[in-house]
Amino acid sequence: MIQTWLYIVLTLTASEWGFFGHKLINRVAVYTLPTEMIGWYKPYIDYLSDHAVDPDKRRYATKHEAVRHFIDLDRWGDTNFDHIPRYWDQILALNMVAYSVNKNDTTYLLKAIPHEMWSDSVADYHNRIELVRNHYLRQYYADEAAIPCDSLQMIFPDLKCNGNTTVYLHDVFSEHGIVPYHLQVMQRRLTNAFKNNDLESLLRTSAELGHYVADACVPLHTTANYNGQLTNQVGIHGFWESRIPELFAIDEFDMVVGTATYIDNPVNYFWNLVLTSHKEVDKVLSLEKQLSETYPSDKQYCMEDRLNANVRTQCADYARAYNLAMDKMVEDRFRVAVKAVGDAWYTAWVDAGQPTPPPYRAINKRNAADEELDKAVQKGKELGREHE
Ligand SMILES: [Zn+2]
Protein backbone atom coordinates (compact mmCIF):
# COMPACT_ATOMS: atom_id res chain seq x y z
CA MET A 1 0.00 0.00 0.00
CA ILE A 2 2.69 2.50 1.01
CA GLN A 3 4.71 1.37 -1.97
CA THR A 4 2.01 1.89 -4.60
CA TRP A 5 1.29 5.31 -3.24
CA LEU A 6 4.98 6.25 -3.20
CA TYR A 7 5.31 5.14 -6.77
CA ILE A 8 2.57 7.48 -7.93
CA VAL A 9 4.03 10.47 -6.09
CA LEU A 10 7.65 9.88 -7.02
CA THR A 11 7.15 9.25 -10.70
CA LEU A 12 5.54 12.65 -10.81
CA THR A 13 8.11 14.52 -8.74
CA ALA A 14 11.45 12.77 -9.26
CA SER A 15 12.64 15.02 -12.01
CA GLU A 16 16.13 15.68 -10.74
CA TRP A 17 18.81 13.09 -11.29
CA GLY A 18 20.41 11.97 -8.08
CA PHE A 19 17.81 13.54 -5.82
CA PHE A 20 15.49 10.57 -5.89
CA GLY A 21 16.92 8.78 -2.84
CA HIS A 22 16.85 11.76 -0.51
CA LYS A 23 13.27 12.62 -1.39
CA LEU A 24 12.19 9.03 -0.89
CA ILE A 25 13.97 8.62 2.45
CA ASN A 26 12.38 11.74 3.97
CA ARG A 27 8.98 10.69 2.62
CA VAL A 28 9.12 7.17 4.05
CA ALA A 29 10.61 8.42 7.34
CA VAL A 30 7.35 10.23 8.07
CA TYR A 31 5.71 6.79 8.36
CA THR A 32 8.11 5.76 11.14
CA LEU A 33 6.84 8.48 13.46
CA PRO A 34 4.78 7.53 16.50
CA THR A 35 1.10 8.45 16.60
CA GLU A 36 1.67 11.69 18.52
CA MET A 37 3.77 13.05 15.67
CA ILE A 38 2.68 11.44 12.41
CA GLY A 39 -0.65 13.28 12.21
CA TRP A 40 1.25 16.52 12.40
CA TYR A 41 4.11 15.70 9.97
CA LYS A 42 2.04 13.97 7.31
CA PRO A 43 0.25 17.02 5.86
CA TYR A 44 3.72 18.43 5.15
CA ILE A 45 5.08 15.26 3.55
CA ASP A 46 5.54 16.87 0.11
CA TYR A 47 7.43 19.77 1.65
CA LEU A 48 9.69 17.42 3.65
CA SER A 49 10.40 15.40 0.53
CA ASP A 50 10.98 18.37 -1.81
CA HIS A 51 13.30 20.12 0.61
CA ALA A 52 15.29 16.96 1.31
CA VAL A 53 17.59 18.03 -1.52
CA ASP A 54 18.19 21.66 -0.47
CA PRO A 55 21.58 20.87 1.11
CA ASP A 56 22.79 19.41 -2.19
CA LYS A 57 21.53 22.49 -4.03
CA ARG A 58 23.33 24.72 -1.56
CA ARG A 59 26.61 23.16 -2.69
CA TYR A 60 26.25 25.40 -5.73
CA ALA A 61 25.71 28.51 -3.65
CA THR A 62 28.42 28.35 -0.97
CA LYS A 63 31.82 26.71 -0.72
CA HIS A 64 31.11 25.88 2.93
CA GLU A 65 28.35 23.40 2.14
CA ALA A 66 30.16 20.47 0.51
CA VAL A 67 32.13 19.35 3.59
CA ARG A 68 28.93 18.86 5.59
CA HIS A 69 27.97 15.85 3.46
CA PHE A 70 30.88 13.49 4.01
CA ILE A 71 33.93 12.54 6.06
CA ASP A 72 37.06 10.95 4.62
CA LEU A 73 37.52 8.56 7.53
CA ASP A 74 40.36 6.67 5.86
CA ARG A 75 42.47 9.81 6.00
CA TRP A 76 42.47 9.50 9.77
CA GLY A 77 43.22 5.79 10.25
CA ASP A 78 42.93 2.33 8.71
CA THR A 79 40.30 0.30 10.48
CA ASN A 80 40.01 1.67 13.98
CA PHE A 81 38.66 5.18 14.39
CA ASP A 82 38.34 5.30 18.18
CA HIS A 83 41.03 7.96 18.39
CA ILE A 84 38.97 10.53 16.46
CA PRO A 85 37.36 12.93 18.93
CA ARG A 86 33.59 12.82 18.62
CA TYR A 87 33.07 16.50 19.40
CA TRP A 88 33.60 19.42 17.05
CA ASP A 89 35.74 21.65 19.29
CA GLN A 90 38.00 18.71 20.19
CA ILE A 91 38.76 17.66 16.63
CA LEU A 92 39.31 21.26 15.55
CA ALA A 93 41.66 21.81 18.48
CA LEU A 94 43.92 19.01 17.24
CA ASN A 95 43.86 20.34 13.70
CA MET A 96 44.35 24.01 14.38
CA VAL A 97 47.11 25.94 12.69
CA ALA A 98 48.07 29.41 13.89
CA TYR A 99 50.42 31.80 12.18
CA SER A 100 51.43 35.36 12.73
CA VAL A 101 51.90 37.89 9.99
CA ASN A 102 54.23 40.75 10.69
CA LYS A 103 54.87 43.05 7.73
CA ASN A 104 55.81 40.49 5.08
CA ASP A 105 56.89 37.67 7.37
CA THR A 106 54.67 34.73 8.17
CA THR A 107 55.61 32.67 11.21
CA TYR A 108 53.89 29.40 12.04
CA LEU A 109 53.12 29.23 15.74
CA LEU A 110 50.81 26.29 16.17
CA LYS A 111 50.85 23.13 14.08
CA ALA A 112 48.24 20.42 13.62
CA ILE A 113 48.79 17.17 15.56
CA PRO A 114 49.33 14.11 13.29
CA HIS A 115 46.37 11.74 13.60
CA GLU A 116 48.53 8.92 14.98
CA MET A 117 49.00 11.09 18.08
CA TRP A 118 45.43 12.24 18.65
CA SER A 119 44.47 11.75 22.28
CA ASP A 120 43.50 13.94 25.18
CA SER A 121 47.05 13.71 26.50
CA VAL A 122 48.29 16.03 23.75
CA ALA A 123 50.19 18.89 25.37
CA ASP A 124 48.04 22.02 25.52
CA TYR A 125 44.96 20.10 24.39
CA HIS A 126 42.70 22.01 26.75
CA ASN A 127 44.19 25.36 25.86
CA ARG A 128 43.73 24.51 22.21
CA ILE A 129 40.06 23.70 22.87
CA GLU A 130 39.65 27.07 24.61
CA LEU A 131 41.21 28.77 21.62
CA VAL A 132 38.72 27.06 19.31
CA ARG A 133 35.73 27.86 21.50
CA ASN A 134 36.66 31.46 22.22
CA HIS A 135 38.19 32.56 18.96
CA TYR A 136 37.71 30.14 16.09
CA LEU A 137 34.13 28.80 16.04
CA ARG A 138 32.50 32.20 15.72
CA GLN A 139 34.78 32.95 12.76
CA TYR A 140 34.51 29.50 11.20
CA TYR A 141 33.02 30.86 7.97
CA ALA A 142 35.32 33.87 7.70
CA ASP A 143 37.87 33.76 4.90
CA GLU A 144 40.57 34.54 7.43
CA ALA A 145 40.04 34.06 11.16
CA ALA A 146 42.12 36.85 12.71
CA ILE A 147 42.55 36.85 16.49
CA PRO A 148 44.32 39.13 18.96
CA CYS A 149 47.95 38.07 19.18
CA ASP A 150 47.86 37.92 22.98
CA SER A 151 45.10 35.29 22.96
CA LEU A 152 47.80 32.80 21.92
CA GLN A 153 49.85 33.61 24.99
CA MET A 154 48.00 30.99 27.01
CA ILE A 155 49.74 28.44 24.78
CA PHE A 156 52.94 30.37 24.19
CA PRO A 157 53.61 32.50 27.29
CA ASP A 158 56.77 33.94 25.72
CA LEU A 159 55.08 35.05 22.51
CA LYS A 160 55.98 38.67 21.76
CA CYS A 161 53.07 40.69 20.45
CA ASN A 162 53.34 44.19 19.10
CA GLY A 163 50.94 46.42 17.26
CA ASN A 164 51.94 45.13 13.83
CA THR A 165 51.35 41.47 14.57
CA THR A 166 48.17 39.76 13.50
CA VAL A 167 47.54 36.12 14.25
CA TYR A 168 45.38 33.94 12.03
CA LEU A 169 43.75 30.59 12.74
CA HIS A 170 42.99 27.95 10.18
CA ASP A 171 41.80 24.36 10.60
CA VAL A 172 43.15 21.62 8.37
CA PHE A 173 40.42 19.11 9.24
CA SER A 174 37.18 20.50 7.79
CA GLU A 175 38.18 20.19 4.16
CA HIS A 176 38.18 16.40 4.57
CA GLY A 177 34.56 16.28 5.66
CA ILE A 178 32.59 16.97 8.83
CA VAL A 179 29.26 15.11 8.51
CA PRO A 180 29.20 13.49 11.99
CA TYR A 181 29.81 16.90 13.59
CA HIS A 182 27.34 18.74 11.41
CA LEU A 183 24.65 16.20 12.34
CA GLN A 184 25.06 17.22 15.99
CA VAL A 185 24.54 20.87 15.04
CA MET A 186 21.44 20.05 12.98
CA GLN A 187 19.96 17.91 15.75
CA ARG A 188 20.29 20.79 18.22
CA ARG A 189 18.82 23.17 15.64
CA LEU A 190 15.74 20.97 15.21
CA THR A 191 15.27 20.65 18.97
CA ASN A 192 15.35 24.45 19.22
CA ALA A 193 12.89 24.83 16.36
CA PHE A 194 10.46 22.59 18.30
CA LYS A 195 11.06 24.61 21.47
CA ASN A 196 10.40 27.87 19.61
CA ASN A 197 7.32 26.44 17.89
CA ASP A 198 8.62 27.91 14.65
CA LEU A 199 6.77 26.10 11.85
CA GLU A 200 8.94 27.14 8.93
CA SER A 201 12.23 26.41 10.70
CA LEU A 202 10.85 23.15 12.05
CA LEU A 203 9.97 21.84 8.61
CA ARG A 204 13.06 23.14 6.87
CA THR A 205 15.41 21.78 9.54
CA SER A 206 13.60 18.41 9.58
CA ALA A 207 14.01 18.14 5.82
CA GLU A 208 17.68 19.11 5.90
CA LEU A 209 18.58 16.99 8.93
CA GLY A 210 17.04 14.10 6.98
CA HIS A 211 19.43 14.83 4.14
CA TYR A 212 22.60 14.75 6.24
CA VAL A 213 21.47 11.64 8.13
CA ALA A 214 20.89 9.86 4.82
CA ASP A 215 24.32 10.94 3.52
CA ALA A 216 25.95 9.49 6.64
CA CYS A 217 24.41 6.12 5.73
CA VAL A 218 26.18 5.96 2.35
CA PRO A 219 29.55 4.13 2.41
CA LEU A 220 31.07 6.33 -0.32
CA HIS A 221 30.40 9.41 1.82
CA THR A 222 32.99 8.12 4.31
CA THR A 223 36.05 7.65 2.12
CA ALA A 224 38.58 9.77 0.23
CA ASN A 225 37.93 7.44 -2.75
CA TYR A 226 34.36 8.75 -2.83
CA ASN A 227 33.82 8.35 -6.55
CA GLY A 228 36.22 5.50 -7.26
CA GLN A 229 38.63 8.08 -8.68
CA LEU A 230 41.60 6.38 -6.96
CA THR A 231 40.73 2.90 -8.27
CA ASN A 232 39.65 3.68 -11.82
CA GLN A 233 35.94 3.36 -11.00
CA VAL A 234 34.78 6.91 -11.67
CA GLY A 235 30.99 7.13 -11.55
CA ILE A 236 30.50 4.51 -8.82
CA HIS A 237 29.13 7.16 -6.43
CA GLY A 238 26.05 7.83 -8.53
CA PHE A 239 25.79 4.16 -9.51
CA TRP A 240 25.39 3.13 -5.86
CA GLU A 241 23.33 5.97 -4.44
CA SER A 242 21.25 7.11 -7.41
CA ARG A 243 21.02 4.52 -10.17
CA ILE A 244 20.32 1.48 -8.01
CA PRO A 245 17.67 3.14 -5.83
CA GLU A 246 15.99 4.67 -8.87
CA LEU A 247 15.74 1.30 -10.54
CA PHE A 248 14.83 -0.92 -7.62
CA ALA A 249 13.73 0.97 -4.50
CA ILE A 250 10.04 1.39 -5.25
CA ASP A 251 9.38 -2.14 -6.44
CA GLU A 252 11.85 -4.14 -4.43
CA PHE A 253 12.99 -2.40 -1.24
CA ASP A 254 11.09 -3.21 1.93
CA MET A 255 10.04 0.22 3.18
CA VAL A 256 8.57 -0.88 6.49
CA VAL A 257 11.25 -0.24 9.11
CA GLY A 258 9.26 -0.01 12.33
CA THR A 259 8.56 2.91 14.62
CA ALA A 260 11.09 5.63 15.39
CA THR A 261 12.80 5.32 18.75
CA TYR A 262 14.44 7.83 21.06
CA ILE A 263 18.17 8.39 20.63
CA ASP A 264 19.83 8.41 24.05
CA ASN A 265 23.17 9.63 22.83
CA PRO A 266 22.98 11.46 19.47
CA VAL A 267 26.76 11.89 19.26
CA ASN A 268 27.43 8.15 19.44
CA TYR A 269 24.39 7.38 17.31
CA PHE A 270 25.50 9.63 14.43
CA TRP A 271 29.07 8.40 14.66
CA ASN A 272 27.82 4.85 14.52
CA LEU A 273 25.99 5.59 11.26
CA VAL A 274 29.22 6.82 9.71
CA LEU A 275 31.33 3.96 11.08
CA THR A 276 28.93 1.25 9.93
CA SER A 277 28.77 2.88 6.50
CA HIS A 278 32.54 2.87 6.32
CA LYS A 279 32.70 -0.89 7.01
CA GLU A 280 31.04 -1.43 3.62
CA VAL A 281 33.42 0.69 1.54
CA ASP A 282 35.69 -2.20 0.50
CA LYS A 283 32.72 -4.27 -0.64
CA VAL A 284 31.18 -1.38 -2.59
CA LEU A 285 34.41 -0.91 -4.53
CA SER A 286 35.70 -4.47 -4.89
CA LEU A 287 32.40 -6.01 -6.02
CA GLU A 288 31.95 -3.41 -8.74
CA LYS A 289 35.56 -3.89 -9.80
CA GLN A 290 35.11 -7.67 -10.09
CA LEU A 291 31.83 -7.30 -11.93
CA SER A 292 33.20 -4.75 -14.39
CA GLU A 293 36.00 -7.18 -15.25
CA THR A 294 33.75 -10.19 -15.86
CA TYR A 295 30.51 -8.67 -17.22
CA PRO A 296 30.39 -8.17 -21.03
CA SER A 297 31.88 -4.73 -21.51
CA ASP A 298 29.40 -3.68 -24.23
CA LYS A 299 26.49 -4.39 -21.87
CA GLN A 300 27.62 -2.25 -18.95
CA TYR A 301 26.58 1.17 -20.26
CA CYS A 302 23.39 2.11 -22.08
CA MET A 303 21.93 5.32 -23.49
CA GLU A 304 18.74 6.47 -21.82
CA ASP A 305 16.33 9.36 -22.28
CA ARG A 306 16.26 11.58 -19.26
CA LEU A 307 15.13 15.18 -18.81
CA ASN A 308 14.86 15.55 -22.59
CA ALA A 309 18.45 14.43 -23.05
CA ASN A 310 20.03 11.18 -24.13
CA VAL A 311 22.49 10.22 -21.40
CA ARG A 312 24.96 7.39 -20.89
CA THR A 313 24.30 5.44 -17.73
CA GLN A 314 24.76 1.96 -16.29
CA CYS A 315 22.41 -0.53 -18.00
CA ALA A 316 19.54 -1.80 -15.87
CA ASP A 317 20.74 -5.41 -16.05
CA TYR A 318 24.26 -4.42 -15.10
CA ALA A 319 22.86 -2.45 -12.15
CA ARG A 320 20.80 -5.47 -11.17
CA ALA A 321 23.89 -7.68 -11.22
CA TYR A 322 25.79 -5.20 -9.01
CA ASN A 323 22.88 -4.88 -6.62
CA LEU A 324 22.63 -8.67 -6.40
CA ALA A 325 26.38 -9.03 -5.77
CA MET A 326 26.08 -6.60 -2.85
CA ASP A 327 23.34 -8.77 -1.37
CA LYS A 328 20.82 -6.12 -0.28
CA MET A 329 23.45 -3.71 0.99
CA VAL A 330 21.87 -0.68 -0.71
CA GLU A 331 18.44 -1.67 0.59
CA ASP A 332 19.85 -2.20 4.09
CA ARG A 333 21.55 1.20 4.16
CA PHE A 334 18.34 2.75 2.83
CA ARG A 335 16.36 1.19 5.62
CA VAL A 336 18.93 2.31 8.20
CA ALA A 337 18.66 5.84 6.80
CA VAL A 338 14.85 5.90 6.92
CA LYS A 339 14.80 4.69 10.50
CA ALA A 340 17.58 7.09 11.52
CA VAL A 341 15.77 10.11 10.02
CA GLY A 342 12.63 9.14 11.96
CA ASP A 343 14.68 8.60 15.13
CA ALA A 344 16.34 12.02 14.78
CA TRP A 345 13.05 13.87 14.24
CA TYR A 346 11.36 12.05 17.10
CA THR A 347 14.30 12.67 19.46
CA ALA A 348 14.31 16.42 18.74
CA TRP A 349 10.62 16.58 19.62
CA VAL A 350 11.11 14.62 22.87
CA ASP A 351 14.15 16.71 23.84
CA ALA A 352 12.13 19.87 23.29
CA GLY A 353 9.64 18.62 25.88
CA GLN A 354 7.09 17.06 23.49
CA PRO A 355 5.45 20.39 22.61
CA THR A 356 2.17 20.59 20.74
CA PRO A 357 3.30 21.61 17.27
CA PRO A 358 1.87 24.74 15.65
CA PRO A 359 -1.57 24.23 14.08
CA TYR A 360 -1.65 23.24 10.43
CA ARG A 361 -1.30 26.02 7.93
CA ALA A 362 -0.42 25.80 4.28
CA ILE A 363 3.11 26.97 3.80
CA ASN A 364 4.83 28.23 0.73
CA LYS A 365 6.56 25.31 -0.87
CA ARG A 366 9.12 27.64 -2.39
CA ASN A 367 10.21 31.03 -1.11
CA ALA A 368 12.74 33.62 -2.27
CA ALA A 369 15.66 31.71 -0.74
CA ASP A 370 14.60 28.60 -2.66
CA GLU A 371 14.57 30.57 -5.90
CA GLU A 372 18.12 31.74 -5.18
CA LEU A 373 19.22 28.14 -4.61
CA ASP A 374 17.66 27.01 -7.85
CA LYS A 375 19.40 29.83 -9.71
CA ALA A 376 22.75 28.75 -8.26
CA VAL A 377 22.10 25.16 -9.38
CA GLN A 378 21.23 26.35 -12.89
CA LYS A 379 24.57 28.15 -13.09
CA GLY A 380 25.87 24.64 -12.73
CA LYS A 381 29.12 25.02 -10.82
CA GLU A 382 29.55 23.12 -7.58
CA LEU A 383 31.82 24.82 -5.06
CA GLY A 384 34.18 22.67 -3.05
CA ARG A 385 34.28 18.94 -3.71
CA GLU A 386 31.97 17.91 -6.52
CA HIS A 387 29.30 15.35 -5.77
CA GLU A 388 29.97 12.62 -8.32
ZN1 LIG B 1 24.41 15.33 0.31
Automatic annotation (TrEMBL):
Signal sequence segment: none
UniProt feature, compositional bias: Basic and acidic residues: 374-388
Disordered, as annotated region: 366-388
GO molecular function annotation: hydrolase activity, acting on ester bonds
Protein's recorded name: S1/P1 Nuclease
